[in-house]
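Write out this protein's structure.
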Amino acid sequence: MEYELLVNFSLGQMKISRKGVVLSSLPSVMSLGLFYSLALHMHQSLGTWPASIGERGFPRLLVIHANLCVYFFMALVLSGVFIVPAIIAVCLATPGWRHSVPYFVLYVMLFFACWGVMQFAPEPFLNWWRD
């Protein structure tokens, strides 16, 4: 009986939706794009990496870009810590929704993968980003 439940829940029995994979991946990929475009924008606008913490002396468009990037990233972190685990628990508890769990797990895994890729940015930019 337990084995049947495990087999029925496995991915081998489930049809993966391309749309579901794209929707699960999109927020992290957008965050990564915003992050690296901010690094490029910052270096292009300032001619170097920022020497201090904060946005003093930054052009207006760079400040807007930085705020957009920070708020988007914060939304991903908060949703990944508080909202997505609750959604996964509800989906696991509801038999008709169990097929959605892999998409939410993919969302979380890609967040961490993109966060890891962000660590390859130049160190002066990362110092500014972390502060």
